[in-house]
Amino acid sequence: MGWNRKVLRVNLSAGTCTPEPLNMAWANDYLGSRGLASKYLVEEIDPRVDPLSPENKMIMATGPLTGTMASTGGRYTVVTKGALTNAIACSNSGGYFGAEMKFAGWDMIIFEGKSPKPVYLFVENDKAELRDASHLWGKTCWETEETIKAGHQDPQIRVSSIGAAGENAVLFACIVNDLHRAAGRSGVGAVMGSKNLKAVAIRGTKGVSGIKDFPAFLQATGAAKKVLADNAVTGQGLPKYGTQVLMNVINEIGALPTRNHRDVQFEEAGRISAEAMHEKRATDGKPHLVTNAACFGCTIACGRISKIDETHFSVKNSPQYWGASGGLEYEAAWALGAANGVGDLEALQYANLLCNEHGMDPISFGATVGAVMELQDLGILSKEQIGLDASFGSAEALCKLVEMTAHGEGFGKEIGMGSARLCAKYGRPDLSMSVKNQEFPAYDSRGIQGMGLAYATSNRGACHLRGYTVASEVLGIPVKTDPLTTDGKPELVKAFQDATSVFDSAGICIFTSFAWTLADVQPQVQAACEGDWSMDKLNEVGERIWNMERQFNLAAGLSAKDDDLPPRLKTEPAKTGPAKGLVNGLDKMKPEYYKVRGWTPEGVPEKATLERLGL
Ligand code: SF4
To answer: Which pLDDT score is estimated for 169?
Structure first.
């Protein structure tokens, strides 16, 4: 059946943990994880609720393939109303936590209310209880995980927790599991912190039972693994170079946002690339990269494990950072690096470590620092106001600002608001490179036109994981389209958005989509889950999820005007590279996209669209 059919409802105000059956009618319509948890959220909260109030809820959810032998089937999602965006938020994480939740017998954990004091949830198979976390409050995510495992004398417990950023209401705080994996975006960690929930610790020993047709499931997952192994990206590129393989590729096509999107190519991209991570350092003769790593059940293993140069200024007096640790991945390397003009690989790894340790999204943090650097460059912010010299390219400033932001110290408190609120406060809202208050990831939409539309219309704010048209526009997956034209992009964006909704809801990693289409996912879902899961049905489920999320955002007060890009991307042409002279053609694509979606010119789903999707 794919699902455990069990939900754990945790009322933090009352201190109760109550099991309830999973709504199977909803599972049949929304599959699991992102889709199903969003359905619960939409049904249970007022869309206009303050994200940091007790009335907001936070849901941790697995998909039907989570914990199974499907490749990459270790994902779980955190669904809530986003602290950064005021929109529906769904952040997805790998590692081992999601599979453990499934092994303990739960599909979903719903957190409601607010605890009067810091607590953590401890789940051991069917048993669930809230425990005092006063000894954990103030600890980093890494210390929290270690302390919980030691306290329970069980190293196999899996932990998701917040660090200083979540405790201090940094609006882009994330939730970290298994040391280096995070439900990263939209401020889900700030929501968790607002509930005085420090951590969720799970131990499950039940395995996954109830696969509908096990021989068919074995066959389908085996065939799908072969597709991953035979594909150049998932079989060779990602295991060897990680997502960082993109740094030089995206720089060459002139789509690497640099210095707060002033430029589209970074002259030091090579120094912070995947290739650089393999090279031996001049200082100690060792390469930055130690090995690759995989999340639960993953046959791709894109994760990076690296070691910082012990003589580097950031760590030379801090031996606790000399060991091997997670990163760098492409998005973090870009946001901490090119977005700020910083070409110091060791500094980026250090800043990334601190983001993991303190539970902070490196994309939004790095991009907000980029905005601060531009505000200083323009003379709008002084070094005295910031408390240091935040010139573009300053690795020292980057490293100091991570600590200041996570702990809410000095100007770090303002960075913790995110770039949209910060730039508005200093009179230059146009300098925030964001959509719906969420900062862009690592692709400049002047050089990859479809990404501009994908960013603008993403339900959770600017995001590459909601409609990754880079796959088609740059890598030719599944078909090559021209990145410099807007033609055909509305249809392409819709197709990617709907398909991604299904990948996310199944409980698998979106990186499989470099090799898999929905046709590779369908037999796995069909064999695992009761009922009919034809291609037509999966396509409809994906579209239903997208429209449900849209309906929530509209009810929350968002509108077509929020489906927009910063003026820089629409009026300042790219200065170099293949896109030289181009701006993003969002204003041409958006009306067509609304039409393709079956929405009014105001971006509201038509009655017929809602009826067709059963919404
Ligand atoms: S592809 Fe990478 S991120 Fe995805 S599950 Fe595998 S190791 Fe984790």
So the answer is: 96
Closest protein CA for atom 5 of ligand 1:
72
**Bridging pattern class, strands 6-11 and 108-112:** parallel
| Tokens linked to 320 | 């606790």
Over residues 556-606, the pLDDT tens digits come to 999 999 999 999 999 999 999 999 999 999 999 999 999 999 999 999 999
For ligand 1, atom 8, name the residue with the nearest CA: 295
* CB of residue 303 inside a 6 A radius of ligand 1: yes
Among 171, 176, 173, smallest CA distance to 159 is for 176
Tokens of 92: 């997805």
Query: Is residue 56 lining ligand 1, measured as CB closer than 6 Å?
Result: no
Average pLDDT for 291-314: 94
Exposed (0-12), middle (13-18) or buried (19+): which is 1, by Cβ within 10 Å? middle
pLDDT at res. 386? 98
- Could you give the residue ranges of the DSSP H alpha helices within 231-361? 238-241, 246-252, 274-278, 330-336, 345-358
Please check whether residue 371 is in contact with residue 431, taking contact to mean a CB–CB distance below 8 angstroms.
Answer: yes
Mutate which of 509, 510, 514 for ligand 1 pocket (most atoms within 8 A of beta carbon): 509
Query: Quick one: pLDDT at residue 380?
Result: 98
- For ligand 1, the distance from its centroid to the CA atom of residue 465, given in whole angstroms, is 13
**Nearest residue (CA) to ligand 1, atom 4:** 509
Ligand 1 centroid–CA 71 distance in Å is 9
Structure tokens at 404: 């200041």
Question: Ligand 1 in contact with 302 (CB < 6 A)?
Answer: yes
Q: Which of 88, 138, 440, 90 is nearest to 260 (CA)?
A: 440
Query: What does the pLDDT look like over 3-16, one tens digit per residue?
Result: 999 999 999 999 99
- Ligand 1 atom having least distance to the Cα of 510: 4
pLDDT single digits (tens) 428-459:
999 999 999 999 999 999 999 999 999 999 99
Closest by Cα among 243, 333, 240, 220 to 514: 243
Average pLDDT of span 90-94? 96
Cα–Cα dist 253/264, whole Å: 9
Question: In sequence order, which residues have a C-beta less than 8 Å from that of residue 43 and are 6 or more positions away?
Answer: none
Q: Contact at 8 Å (CB) between 199 and 159?
A: yes
- The pLDDT tens digits of the residues spanning 130-150 come to 999 999 999 999 999 999 999
Q: What is the mean pLDDT of residues 99-115?
A: 97
Q: Are residues 359 and 166 in contact, defined by beta-carbon separation less than 8 angstroms?
A: yes
CA of 354 to the centre of ligand 1 (A): 21
User: Using CA atoms, how far apart are residues 127 and 540, in angstroms rounded to an integer?
Assistant: 37
Can you tell me the distance from the alpha carbon of 124 to that of 128, in angstroms, rounded to the nearest whole number?
6
